[in-house]
Amino acid sequence: MALKLDLQLFSQEKTESATPKKRQEARKKGQVAKSMDLPAAFILFFSFLSFFLFGSFMKEHLLTMIRSVYYDFLLMNVTIENSQQLFEKLMAELLLTVGPIFAIALVIGVLANYLQIGFMFTGDPLTMKFSKINPLEGAKRLFSLRAVVDFLKSVLKMSIIGIVVYTTLTGEKDHIMLLAQLPLEEAFRYTASVTLMLGLKIGLVLIVLAIFDYLYQRFEYEKSLKMSKQDIKDEYKKTEGDPLIKGKIREKQRRMALQRMMQDVPKADVIITNPTHFAVAMKYDASKMQAPTVLAKGTDYIALKIKQVAKEHGIITMENKPLARALYAQVEIGESIPADMFQAVAEVLAYVYKVKGKAN
């Protein structure tokens, strides 16, 4: 029969998906699939959109701020109290004017990050590492494939934005040529509408590009987390423990359990044997137990040790093959015997008590 070998174990090729443990460790280090362009694109789009929603509101507060300067404070005496009053009023109006924009930008920025990576707080990326200031490592990052991809993304982004701006302004060429003939208010209104339209178009374009960038970042992230079969085996050993060490621990636990069991053999009333292959130590105390209890049991070598300890402490040993086998198979150490064995065990204990009574 031909021996089948898994060549991946030798080549260490990373073809396996990352385990949950590795994903969790990467997340703790701040390594997640995230596009930095996505929050910026959403903030730009919704900021321009908010100008449409709160344009009239912002206009009123801006006019109120200008009126306050020219009508209320222009002819007032320049004193500390008047200057403070003017400053407070202007700051209040300014906050009311730009407050909605800042609030929307903050909410959209937090939401865009949360949708990508969920809630995450880690200080690992802020940790001082010498590799970050190593010139060789810096040169590698500068000329890496990732740097080339980022450069191409920037070129593509600027090219598409340039095309959007060019086509929009070209379409408005006739109106732009007539701006010099329009009143100042109308010219300002038209310029503002074109600017808002450009902002929304650019925002939408950047959102589309950012979604593709996020998909690319996710692909790169999954690729960087790939593991070889040997990596998975090593991780399993670290998580579950080395099989050799676990075997030694289990062996030590068995020895300790055997030692504790042997310490209970001298407390038994009788040892029921097979006679050579099985041995079960029984005890019954009417004041403390509802039924006879198995203190120790074993086969072959352990059965021999039980009988030796019983002999050293003068415990009566009785041969009863069916009962010894049944007790060993059905009753665990420390458990009481089942009801269907009461009669057989009672006869054994009655004989033991009778022998002990004659001896006394």
From TrEMBL:
Compartment(s) where it occurs, according to its Swiss-Prot or TrEMBL record: Cell membrane
Family annotation (InterPro entries): FlhB, T3SS_substrate_exporter, T3SS_substrate_exporter_C
Major location (coarse): membrane
Pfam families with a match to the protein in the record: Bac_export_2
Membrane spanning stretches: 38-58, 101-122, 187-216
Alphabetically ordered keywords of this record: Bacterial flagellum biogenesis, Bacterial flagellum protein export, Cell membrane, Cell projection, Cilium, Flagellum, Membrane, Protein transport, Transmembrane, Transmembrane helix, Transport
Membrane topology label: Multi-pass membrane protein
Main function: Required for formation of the rod structure in the basal body of the flagellar apparatus. Together with FliI and FliH, may constitute the export apparatus of flagellin.
Protein family: Belongs to the type III secretion exporter family.
Name under which the protein is recorded: Flagellar biosynthetic protein FlhB
Species annotation: Paenibacillus gyeongsangnamensis
Gene giving rise to this polypeptide: flhB
